Amino acid sequence: MSSPDYSIKLTVDAVVFGYREGQLFLALINRKYEPFRGQWALPGGFVLPDEDLEGAVQRELREETGIQTRFLEQLYTFGAVERDPRQRIVSVAYMGLLRPSDFQIVASTDAQDVAWFRVDALPPLAFDHSEIIQMGLQRLRNKLTYEPIGLNLLDEKFPFSDLERLYATILNRAFDRRNFRKKFLGFGILTELPEKISPDKGRPASLYTFDRERYETMQKEGFLFDIR
Amino acid sequence: MSSPDYSIKLTVDAVVFGYREGQLFLALINRKYEPFRGQWALPGGFVLPDEDLEGAVQRELREETGIQTRFLEQLYTFGAVERDPRQRIVSVAYMGLLRPSDFQIVASTDAQDVAWFRVDALPPLAFDHSEIIQMGLQRLRNKLTYEPIGLNLLDEKFPFSDLERLYATILNRAFDRRNFRKKFLGFGILTELPEKISPDKGRPASLYTFDRERYETMQKEGFLFDIR
DNA sequence: TCAAAAGTGTTATTACTACACCCATGG
DNA sequence: CCATGGGTGTAGTAATAACACTTTTGA
After folding, report:
1. Half-sphere exposure of A74 toward its Cβ, with a 13 Å CA cutoff?
2. CA-CA to A49 of 20 to 30 Å: which in A95, A181, A208, B161?
3. Contacts of A90 in chain B (CB under 8 A)
4. Does the pTM exceed 0.85?
5. pLDDT digits (tens, 9 = 90+) for B44-68
6. Rounded CA separation B172/B228 (Å)
7. pLDDT of residue A200
8. Domain boundaries, chain A
């Protein structure tokens, strides 16, 4: 009895979202090699024998895009036999989020092969990456409602209306300003700062910041974040 | 430049829960080989080059335990470098649920190396399987609240009180009988059957069945299952 | 007739929804 | 002084939580 061929290759892929001015963006790279050469694809690559999965994602993101995410979590593992036309490749997908400030830096590095696309206007994608992105989007939308994950898409200090607009944009529906504010601030996980920001036009807005410590304490005591 | 060694091995593991009489059980196998020979571990094994991940789980479950699950979903992928002391193995974990009837059959096959343990009294486990199980349990508990997944742990026809007891057992808290009933039946996804079941003692109970089709229709129309 | 589990309504409290006007600033 | 976006309260409605007695059966 000869031992069967277990040489399945393992990769990671990253669905990295950035948010700015009422638009959700996704980082894609242009493939230099076959298969799918010239097509857009998720950043990612092979896992090295001595690095864990999250480490691999972080390395690939750094190498391919220069991105350092503020939030990174495992999404799903894609293992359909035919997902790569050449060899058997199983890919562990991660979802990452980053702040407008970081996002802007990366977007402006003018790196040869990285680009940010609006999620509502994605180009054709290599492999099963469309499917992976769909799952990422769904996860983001779901998590927005039961974890304050959206705060990872905003700068450290932000006007409250940005938060509402972020929710409205990503969940693709309107929120009542007063109710949204009442509910979110009622959680007590945001701190109002003494500073204000002066936008181009209109009344200046107070800045808020996420009190992560307080959130974690409350969470341990059974608090359930919930926005719908 | 020589190509690096990408030979990471890929396995699947299954966290399979069964429920009976107010107790949640978990299927484990006793390892025949090193490492961890003689210790208890999750059913699982290598993914073959021409089968997808879910197929691999189903095959391993069949081969090692005879179990056919009623529900199976991907849980998480475990890839810490040192999780297997011998080689680099990344494992995709799945969570499975089965009905008391199926569960009883398996439990009584008296298979050499399979056993059901109460989840509140598990033996020491091989590898990082404790961690995997914890994640499975957490997923089960979470999902119980926003999907009618618990019905996969009951027989096709069941007295309503079994459902409440299942929730109370797994979530480890009491429910108010009237409120739980009102709310769950209010969803309209259970059908009351004309039959009744006569227990050992006490008043006979109506039998209910899960109207899966109706649930799926309602879900498409935006219905949100929610039990707390 | 007793023990055991099934079945059933009402009320108080809390959370949610809908809704419109004034405020502070820059141009 | 006008345009723009920030900031605020109330009332009706719906959902939730708390609570105890009656019914049906087998022994």
Report:
1. 20
2. A95
3. 10, 47, 53, 92
4. yes
5. 999 999 999 999 999 999 999 999 9
6. 12
7. 85
8. 9-144, 149-220
Give percent above pLDDT 70 in chain B: 93
A9-144 and A149-220 have identical folds: no
The amino acid present at B204, given as its one-letter code, is P
Count the neighbouring beta carbons within 10 Å of the beta carbon of residue B75: 22
Residue of A nearest to B89 (CA): A49
**Best to test chain B binding among A90, A223, A225, A226 (most B CBs inside 10 Å):** A90
CATH superfamily of A9-144: Nucleoside Triphosphate Pyrophosphohydrolase (3.90.79.10)
**pLDDT beneath 70, residues of chain A:** 1-6, 104-112
Please give the structure tokens belonging to residue B31: 């390892």
Residue in chain B closest to A80 (alpha carbons) equals B52
Report the C-alpha gap between A136 and A75 in whole angstroms.
7
Spelled out in words, what is the top-level CATH class assigned to the domain B149-220? Answer: mainly alpha
Contact B10 A6 (CB under 8 A): yes
For residues B136 and B44, give the distance between their C-alpha atoms in angstroms, rounded to a whole number: 15
Cα separation of B14 and B136, whole Å?
Answer: 9
Which residues, in sequence order, are CB contacts of B180 under 8 Å at separation 6+? B164, B167, B227
Question: Tell me, what's the pLDDT at B72?
Answer: 98
What is B61-117 written as a DSSP string?
A: HHHHH----SEEEEEEEE--TTSSSSS-EEEEEEEEEE-HHHHHHHHHS--TTEEEE
Distance CA(A201)–CA(A219), nearest Å, equals 38
pLDDT over 50 (residue B92)? yes
* B76–chain A Cβ distance below 8 A for any pair: yes
8-state DSSP, A150: G
Nearest to B6 among A9, A74, A76 (CB): A9
Q: Per the CB < 8 Å rule, is A53 touching B90?
A: yes
- What does the pLDDT look like over B187-216, one tens digit per residue? 999 999 999 998 789 999 999 999 999 999
Side chain identity at residue A90, one-letter code: V
